[in-house]
Design brief:
The protein has helices spanning about 75-85, 115-125, 135-140, 150-160, 190-195, 215-225, 275-285, 305-315, 365, 385-390, 450-455, 465-475, 480-495, and strands spanning about 5-10, 15-20, 35-40, 45-50, 60, 70-75, 90-95, 95-100, 180-185, 200-205, 230, 245-250, 290-295, 320-325, 340-345, 420, 435-440. By secondary structure, the chain is an alpha/beta fold. It starts with 5 loop residues before the first strand and ends with a helix.
């Protein structure tokens, strides 16, 4: 689809129904949360892609060809009555929005507030006085801040000031680097977004892992982020070890909070104080940081009726604190990876506002031109039994498609032996070999680079270590689009306070 706006007549079905592969291109991929509004006065029904979880979602249907495509099917009485009363309706779809507008007479032009940019250009050339404008920070939200830096926003505010407006950013702070410390830093995928947004990371740590990982994550961090990381258990750090910083970022180990952990889970413990969480809070206070960001699995903020969040609010009573679940697909990733984030800012009310619109990327988009990318030649070789299983699994399928006699007695979960779908977004990725996650059309495991692409990581991010260690790092990675978005979001709020 080259056009940013698609228009066509809608075949009346006395309900709202669209079944088409192009829905994904416009932000309505399978599983996307949606909401709708019926405007009787303007004779219009609008469907929105929602960044928040809703009951209504884009479903999927299988066409006669066997291809699975997105489908929007809304049967509410308000929608049925709307289409029952009107005969001519135009459908107009743009990124994240679908508008059904009544045409009172054949050939009448519909009223729309979605601007076709090419049409706007032609009108301006012909008439000479019509123009369209959008505030730079609103446009930045639409493009997920990928194309505009925080300094672009500063320049925009400076221009507003010259034109009689007021700037919220003191000039002396515009070039100030934010000093950051990082805890449980892993291979650095969370820190990468902050580094690339100009943060000055002055301290990072992670421990030596006795099993497969060993020190591979430390070496990977040093290679891609910097030499400021030390290899020590966070529990051994003292106040004297911690430098002063503006923000502390911590990817606290998630195993104690995972639903999959049935042996030693924090939800079953008697104490409401988790030792590692309490230590992280100590370090934040030692650093005198004015902000902190905590990353973990979803259960981290809901376990024991939200006791972890309660502890942060008790320990940091002078901080505004907000918790947010972010699905990486809402920022344009091809992987449905939901993670919890807690953001605290001293004497302020923080916000994590996801963009209203996001690029809808599929596995096909993520793997574009991957053949010659670095570390594309690194992947596990399947055993004969695994290879036999793979041959039974169709695109988008899993272990349920494998004959009973070839299935594993222990691994019965749906994301085991999972073949990706070219035109789908992948489920949350675990260890590629342990869970047998493999290519959409080839009978082989995903490569290192293909997996990294599903975390939106740039191709120049190089992993160091054995294959087992690399995929251990990847299963614990933070999506790069998410880390970059958070770095930008926090920077915009924190710099005026420093």
């Amino acid at each position: 689809m080259k056009s940013s706006v698609l228009k066509r007549m809608y075949n009346i079905k006395e309900r709202l129904y669209i079944e088409a592969q192009y829905l994904c291109i416009y932000g309505f991929g399978i599983g996307q949360s949606i909401k709708y509004k019926v405007d009787q006065q303007r004779k219009r029904v609008t469907v929105y892609a929602s960044a928040n979880e809703t009951k209504k979602k884009v479903a999927q249907t299988t066409q006669r060809t066997g291809k699975k495509v997105p489908v929007i099917d809304i049967k509410g009485e308000d929608v049925r009555s709307f289409f029952a009363r009107h005969q001519q309706v135009e459908l107009e779809i743009s990124k994240g929005k679908i508008i059904f507008t009544v045409l009172e007479e054949a050939g009448q032009k519909s009223i729309s507030n979605v601007v076709d940019l090419e049409e706007a250009r032609r009108e301006k050339e012909n008439v000479g006085h019509r123009s369209y404008a959008v505030r730079v920070n609103e446009f930045a939200r639409v493009v997920n801040y990928d194309q505009l830096t925080i300094f672009d926003l500063f320049r925009a505010e400076q221009n507003e000031q010259l034109q009689g407006g007021s700037s919220k950013v003191p000039p002396a702070l515009k070039e100030k680097a934010i000093k950051m410390i990082s805890l449980f830093s892993g291979s650095g995928t969370l820190d990468l977004g902050f580094k690339n947004e100009g943060y000055d990371i002055i301290f990072a740590n992670d421990r030596f892992e006795k099993k497969a990982l060993r020190d591979s994550h430390i070496k990977t961090y040093q290679h891609n982020i910097g030499d400021h990381i030390i290899m020590r258990d966070v529990m051994s750090l003292t106040k004297e070890d911690i430098p002063k910083a503006d923000i502390c970022v911590a990817g606290i180990p998630c195993i104690d909070f995972s639903l999959l952990n049935t042996k030693k889970n924090f939800r079953d413990s008697e104490s409401d104080h988790h030792p590692i969480v309490e230590k992280a809070m100590d370090i934040i206070q030692w650093s005198k940081a004015k902000a902190f960001l905590i990353e973990n699995v979803e259960k981290f903020i809901t376990v024991k009726n939200g006791v972890i969040l309660k502890r942060f609010r008790e320990r940091f009573s002078n901080f505004g604190i907000v918790a947010k679940i972010i699905d990486a697909t809402s920022l344009g990733s091809a992987q449905k990876r939901r993670r919890a984030f807690i953001l605290g800012i001293e004497n302020d009310v923080p916000e994590i506002e996801l963009p209203h619109l996001a690029e809808c990327r599929t596995v096909r988009d993520a793997f574009k031109d991957v053949e010659n990318a670095p570390q594309q030649d690194l992947f596990f070789k399947p055993t004969p039994k695994t290879l036999e299983r793979m041959q039974y699994v169709p695109e988008g399928g899993c272990i349920k498609d494998v004959p009973e006699h070839l299935r594993s007695a222990k691994k019965k979960f749906n994301d085991f032996c999972m073949r990706l779908g070219w035109d789908l977004q992948t489920k949350t990725l675990a260890h590629v070999q342990d869970h047998v996650i493999f290519h959409p059309s080839l009978d082989r495991y995903l490569t290192v680079r293909e997996t990294a692409r599903l975390f939106s990581l740039p191709d120049d991010f190089t992993f160091i270590g054995s294959l087992t260690a690399i995929f251990e790092m990847l299963k614990n990675a933070v999506d790069y689009r998410v880390s970059r978005f958070l770095a930008q979001t926090i920077k915009r709020q924190l710099i005026p306070l420093l």
